[in-house]
Structures are given as C-alpha cells and as structure tokens.
UniProtKB/TrEMBL annotation, chain A:
GO terms for cellular component: plasma membrane. Keywords: Cell membrane, Membrane, Transmembrane, Transmembrane helix. The chain crosses the membrane at residues 12-37, 65-83, 95-111, 117-140, 149-171, 202-220, 249-267, 287-311, 323-344. GO terms for molecular function: transmembrane transporter activity. This is Nucleoside ABC transporter membrane protein. It is a multi-pass membrane protein. It comes from the Bacteria. It comes from Lutimaribacter pacificus.
TrEMBL record, chain B:
InterPro entries: ABC_transp_permease. Its main location: membrane. The keyword Transmembrane applies. This is Nucleoside ABC transporter membrane protein. Keywords: Cell membrane, Membrane, Transmembrane, Transmembrane helix. It is found in: Cell membrane. Pfam families: BPD_transp_2. It is a multi-pass membrane protein. It comes from the Bacteria. The chain crosses the membrane at residues 6-25, 37-58, 64-84, 96-114, 145-161, 192-214, 220-238, 245-265, 271-289. GO terms for cellular component: plasma membrane. The keyword Transmembrane applies. It comes from Lutimaribacter pacificus. GO terms for molecular function: transmembrane transporter activity.
Length: 360, 306
C-alpha cells in the first residue's frame, strides 16, 4: 500500500521536474484521446508540437507563437502574483475584455486624427480599464470580505455582455454597413499595434510581456513587497506577525493582474485582432490560469509555459485543418495539462512510500 | 413596450422551471461544502452532465435514462476532483478550476454532432385535482417530475444533515477533520462520497437545462449557472432551505429579465442579460458580512500524518 510522507521542505528537484512530467503525461493521455477520435496519435502529437516549430512552413507559424504567447504570459504574470498570496483572481478574461474596450474606445475617439500620442494614450486606457475592473472584486474583498473568486468570475459574464453591447452600439463602425463590430484599428495607423519588425510577430504586447516577466522577477526576488507576497502565501500567520497589510496586498495583486490583463486586451484589439467584436475574446484569461500554474507561479517558468501553451494553440489549429482534429480536443488537452500538473505536484511536498501493514 | 404581455401566472410557473437547475447544483455543492470541501468545478460538472444526459437521451429515446446518465457523468467527473484533492492533496481552488476548464472542453468534444437536434420530450406531470386549482394550479402543480424531485432533495438533505447520524458525521468532518479522524471516522471516504453526490446533482442540473428547459444542446450553454450555484451556497449560509429561497430568487430574476427582453423594455438586451450576475455580486456583498456560518475546515486538505 502506498502512503504519503510529508517532506520537511518542498523538493527542489521535483519543483522543476513536475511540469515536465505533467507535459509528458498529458502527451500520452492526449495520444490516447486522439486515437479514440480516430486520428493517428503519433502524427497528431507531432503535428501539435513539432510542425509549428520545425516544419517547412514554420517561418509562418513561429511569429504566431509570439502573438499567441504574449497575452498569455502578460495575464499569467499578473495572476501569479495573486495566486502566490492566496488571492484568487479568476476573472482575467473580463479584465482583458474591458481593457480592450477602453483602449479601443480611446483610439476610436480620435479617429481620423493622426498623432503620435494616440497609441500611448490607448495603452494607458487599456491598463486603467483592466485595473478598474479588477478593483471591483478587490475593493469588495477589502471592504466587505466578499469572496473575490466569485465576484471576479461574475464580472466576466458582465464584461461579455458589455462587449456585445459595445460592438453593436457605441463602438460600432458607422461605415460598417450595419455589421456588428468596430472600425478596424489595423487600418488606422496611429492606433495600430503594428509589428515592430515586419514578419516577426513582434509587437508591443510581446515587448510588454517580456518587460513584465523581468519586473515580476525583480519584484519577487529583490523587493520587500514581493517578499510579503511570498510570505503571505507560504506562512499567513508569520506574515501577520511581520506586519504585512493584507488589504494593501489584495489591492496590489488584483490591481496589477487587472492592469496586465487590460494591457493584453488592448494589444490584441489594436494588433492581431484589429476590432472590437462580439467574439473578440477567445479564452486567454482562462488559459492563462493554466499557464500560471504550469510555470510554477515563477516569472521564468511562466514565460516557458506561455510558449508551450501558444504552441498547443497553433499546433491545434494545424491539426484541425490537416487532420480534422476538433477544436474542442485541444481545449480538453489543455485542461488535462492542469490536471496532471496538480496530480504530479504531490511529489513536491510529499514522499511516496510503500508500507507493508504490520499485524497489531 | 408592453407590460401587458407578461402573464404573472406564467412568469411564476417558469420561475419554478428556471430555478430547478440552480437548486439541484447548489444543494449538491452545499453537501460538499458541509463536508469541508470547496469544489469550484460545478460549472464543468453541470455542462458535462448536460451533454451526457442529452446524448444518452437522444440515443435511447428516454429522457429519464438521460437524466440518470447525466448524474453518472457529473459524478464521474467529480471523481477526478476527488482524486486530486483527497489523494494527491492538491489545492482545492486550482483543482476546481481545472475541473471547470476540462469539463467545458470535454462537453464541447462530446457534443459534436448533437447541435440542432431536439431531445425526446419530457413528460409533464399534472397532479390530479391540485393542478385544477385556479392560479396556484398552473404555478405549482403542472411541472415535470424533476422540479418536484429537486424540492424533495432539499427536504431530504435538510433532514439528513439535521436529524441523522450520517449528517452529524458529515458536519463533523466539515468542521474539524482532525477531530473526526481521531474519533475513527474515515474523513477521506466521507469526503469522496460527498464530492460524488455534489457531482451527480450538478450533472442532473445541467441535464435539466439541455433536456427540459431549453431543450437543445449548444456549447457552453450553462453560461455561468454553476458559478451562480456556488454563490447561492454562500448566500444560503450553508443552510438547505435558504438554498431553495435563493434558487427561486435567482430563477425569478432570470425569468423576469427574459420577459422584459421579450416585452421590449427600453433597456438594451445586453444590460438586462447582465442583471443576474450583477445581482449575484450584490447578494454576495450583503451576505459576506456574516462569515461565521462557513464550515470551519472548508477548503483545507486533510492528511492523516499531520
């Protein structure tokens, strides 16, 4: 019979090893799933993980990796700060939408004026929008002790309705022949989040994601606030005695997560997506939760996990067109990843021992 | 705008129907939380139940078999959560979230090819004599059997928790798992059973939406009802009767906003559709003043060595 024995300290080896083991287990389970769907399992896995990087069309897919990875990393970095301190913001999808609406709204307000300051203003509006949306659960938690998980999630549904209302009403393209959706920001140079180097996929969102990774790393390792975040998560009682102000921490973690999610939304709406439309959001806010955990809530880990998750998105699309693999299969695949990670994670804190039961 | 088109009797009757999936999911989650486990995967279990029930009902032609399959599907998915949290001692918040993400994907995968199909109709039970009472008859006594089953389930859960030994043990596990363990109760086994009960209820609630209330299958059709059910448990201060009250309150809001949409009120449709979520937040804020009612061991992992 197997029993668990608590380790005196979390195993360093397993901390690094669990994500790798989880990915391998997910690939195996995914292969079984794909086989059940009547697809060649080896070819499916190869299509998802190999083709985007090394096939003859990789020159087209590699930039996509940055485009898909940037919002995931940006959002996940923000989420990880809160998750470390036991503050559960799961409404990043809503903050992402509001950031996009606010940013695009500011840009469209200036249309058709061309000026250098429009894009920076949009960035500011996007971050502020996401921040403000996250402040709702934050303030309610600080003031009334309301559960931030439920409030932030409810606000996703509210934001989705707001998005529908905006793309059908206030932000609708007046020259759009009655179709829903705003003007296309890609055709408005001052508001367009264009590629910095043509064909590289590198846009301002990618730059921000990298900056966010570096800043989060410094915050967590070199700054008092980062120490307080880690302390609150690992030893809440010790944190209280050390004089950590929980209200400040909640406002900071949720606010940062909201601002980063809002930024991700703004960069997406002004770049790859181009317009505010009903189906603008594609679930990055939720996938980012998986990215944050897969990256062990560590900035560098999140960067790698974001890349991997972007790979499954792109590989999934290739598998969809080439092998007819349903889009939902990729969603299941991503969900399984978190499952396996949480399951394997037990080895970080516990030793698995085989014991033979003795006769009393 | 035409308020005259809203028939109050029909409104109240459809309120009972709209409240049933919420009621089922919330009463299941209440039992789970009273055992000290926070399962945030209600939404995922509901949507999985919705497609399991739908697919089986379409294939067998029997909606009752569909409902049973939905409960089984929900319970099976919840077993994954049970393994993660009870054996691998994973964080319950993260595990619940992963259950929802996985369930949404799984249901979309299973549901391919079921879009646009009509499920077999569910028989309505007209209770003789009672259903002929004017006003009260159509509101209360002309529903399908699941509506009454939901009410009976609330009564049963209330009675078991309050008056039986099993209920006492369940509450003991939820309040202080170390003490319960010291008394010789199998904490993990009791929690797994509670989690599976919650999963079955959530699955049933999901199938009620896809088989009876809507009735058809669309991806993501539960649209946050699982999350509202979670909020309902908080609203109810973990008390069965208040879950019922809350479910009817939210059912009422949903039905009312749908009726207002149909009546063409001057408020845009999107803002009306937001209202159930906004009211959930409002209710959470009001109820969060009283934290004392939450089971003391809620959300904490149990390991016998500690």
């Amino acid at each position: 019979m197997l029993t668990l024995e608590k380790r005196p300290q979390p195993s360093r080896l397993w901390t690094y090893l669990t994500p790798v083991v989880a990915v391998i287990l997910t690939m195996l389970a995914g292969a079984v799933l794909f086989a059940f769907l009547g697809k060649d399992p080896v070819q499916s896995i190869r299509t998802i993980f190999w083709e985007p990087l090394f096939s003859e069309f990789a020159f087209y897919y590699r930039p996509q990796l940055l485009v898909k990875g940037a919002p995931l990393v940006l959002i996940a970095i923000g989420l990880s700060l809160g998750f470390r301190a036991g503050i559960w913001n799961i409404g990043a999808e809503g903050q992402y939408i509001i950031g996009a609406i606010c940013g695009a709204g500011v840009g469209l307000a200036f249309y058709p004026m061309e000026a250098w300051f429009i894009f920076p203003l949009m960035v500011l509006a996007g971050a502020l929008g996401g921040w403000a949306w996250a402040m709702i659960p934050a303030l309610l938690k600080v003031r009334f002790g309301t559960n931030e998980i439920l409030v932030s999630l409810m606000l996703v549904y509210v934001a989705e309705q707001l998005l529908a209302s905006m793309s059908l009403g206030l932000l609708k393209n007046p020259e759009g022949f009655g179709f829903p959706g705003s003007r296309n920001l890609q055709q408005y140079p001052s508001a367009h989040n264009a590629e910095l180097i043509a064909g590289s996929g590198m846009h301002w969102g990618v730059v921000s994601a990298l900056v966010a990774v570096i800043l989060a790393y410094i915050l967590l390792n070199r700054h008092m606030l980062g120490f307080h975040i880690r302390l609150t998560g690992e030893a809440p009682r010790a944190a209280r005695f050390a004089g950590v102000n929980p209200a400040r921490l909640i406002l900071f973690c949720l606010g940062t997560a909201g601002a980063l999610a809002g930024l991700a939304g703004l960069f997406e709406v002004s770049g790859p997506s181009g317009q505010v439309s009903i189906d603008f959001n594609v679930g990055y806010g939720f996938t980012a939760i998986i990215v944050a955990f897969l990256g062990r809530l560590h900035p560098i880990g999140i960067l790698l996990a974001g890349g991997l998750m972007a790979l499954t998105y792109i590989g999934g699309e290739i598998a969809q067109s080439k092998l007819g693999l349903p889009a939902a299969a990729i969603q299941v695949f991503q969900g399984m990843l978190l499952f396996f990670l949480l399951a394997v994670d037990v080895t970080t804190n516990y030793r698995i021992r085989r014991v033979t039961r003795e006769v009393a | 705008m035409d308020f005259g088109s809203i028939n109050p009797i029909l409104l109240l009757a459809s309120l009972m129907v709209a409240a049933t999936p919420l009621l089922l999911a919330a009463i299941g989650e209440l039992v789970v939380e009273r055992a000290g486990v926070l399962n945030l995967g209600v939404e995922g279990m509901m949507i999985t139940g919705a497609i399991c029930g739908f697919a089986i009902a379409v294939n067998t032609g029997s909606p009752i078999v569909g409902l049973v399959a939905a409960a089984a599907g929900g319970a099976a998915l919840s077993l994954l959560f049970a393994v993660l949290t009870q054996f691998a001692l994973a964080n319950q918040v993260a595990s619940g979230l992963s259950l929802t993400l996985f369930g949404l994907g799984l249901s979309a995968l299973l549901g391919q090819g079921y879009q646009g199909i009509k499920p077999p109709p569910f028989p309505r039970v007209d209770i003789p004599l009672l259903s002929d009472i004017p006003v009260l008859g159509p509101i209360l006594f002309r529903h399908d059997i699941v509506v009454y089953f939901g009410l009976a389930l609330v009564a049963a859960v209330w009675w078991v928790l309050k008056n039986t030994r099993a209920g006492l043990i369940l509450r003991a596990v939820g309040e202080n798992h170390d003490a319960a363990h010291a008394l010789g109760y199998k904490v993990v086994r009791i929690r797994i059973l509670a989690i599976m009960f919650g999963g079955a209820c959530a699955g049933l609630g999901g199938a009620y939406i896809s088989l009876i209330r809507v009735p058809q299958w669309t991806e993501g059709m539960t649209a946050g009802i699982g999350w509202i059910a979670l909020a309902l448990v908080v609203f109810a201060s973990w008390k069965p009767w208040r879950v019922m009250l809350g479910a009817y309150l939210f059912g009422g809001i949903t039905v009312l906003q749908l009726n207002l949409q149909a009546a063409g009120v001057a408020i845009p449709v999107e803002y009306l559709a937001m209202s159930p979520y906004l009211i959930t937040i409002l209710v959470l804020v009001i109820m969060s003043a009283d934290k004392s009612r939450a089971p003391a061991a809620l959300g904490r992992s149990f390991h016998a060595s500690q």
